[in-house]
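hey so u asked for the seq, here:
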Amino acid sequence: MAKNSSNSHDLLPLTWFRQWALALITTCTLTGSAIILYKFIAPITWGIALAITIQPLYRRILRRAPNRTTVSLIFTFVLGIGVIIPTVWATHLLISTAIEGLRSVSPASVESLWNNFLKNHPETTSFAERALHILPLDAILTKISLFMENQAQHIVRSSIKSIFNTLLTLAVVFFSLRDGSAFLRGLRSLIPLSARETDAVLRRILDTIHGVIFGIIAIALLQGALGAALLWWLEIHNILIWTVIMTLLALVPYLGTFIVWLPLAIFLLLQGSWIRGVFAIGWGSIIIGLSDNIIYPWLVGKKIHYHPLILFLFLFGGMLTVGASGVILGPIVLATSERLLWIWRKRT
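ran it, structure tokens below
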């Protein structure tokens, strides 16, 4: 009792000037924290989202093996070895292979293939001459070569960053699993709402994260199956391996199955298989591509009870604002805003 009294005497009375000064200092420090952590927003967001997704299974295992640190390490290791690390590795390997393959194509070989095509299809000569007059072949090949060179250098520079982000994501998963209860208690203490209202907001956020992760996995499986159908029609060998790779790539925002089918289509075109190459581009860009842009917002919106158009705007708006982590943060902002408006409407 005496200790509490002593501490209360140490507190200065908050005049209006001190209140504004404290508010200003708090705002500046929070802004500075946000600026510092912004560079790590992607691994932090995905690490927390993955930890929340596997939380039910984690709690079930924890009842039988109560050592939180050991169980958290096992879950993090399995998640890293089974999903994250293979996805990052496959992405870099395929992108670098595709770029090296396209860089190895010489302008002379492309021109030779083009001349052979015109020789075998003389009815297209006049159209081809007009097209080349508008889009010179040499200029196009030069731009493609420069683009591939820049992309190759970008991959080398981003490899270390990808490794660091992967390790940071796994670290966030581990600590979110092991210390998630303590983090949640601290978060609850900072939310200026009643316990019931806080539960409503947090429950809505958790349901949204589960719905988004469910949608990402479902669309990745769908795109992997559609990609497998394309490879089967093109009579490509090792369909199972390529299907697994395309499914993993479909889990990565901004990337996807086109890392596989686009270089394949270009290779077919360069070989003179125009029908197969054009079909591959059409199937990949329309059938596989639209499954992500149309079915995903509809599927996730139906699961978390949001209109597909609203969810589409927050999904892609979030990606344009903060990058790949916007796939998670966009719907979280939507869910939080909707639940807070619901609380305001209920109070008034």
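Confidence is low (pLDDT under 50) at residues 1-6. The radius of gyration is 26 Å.
lmk if thats what u needed
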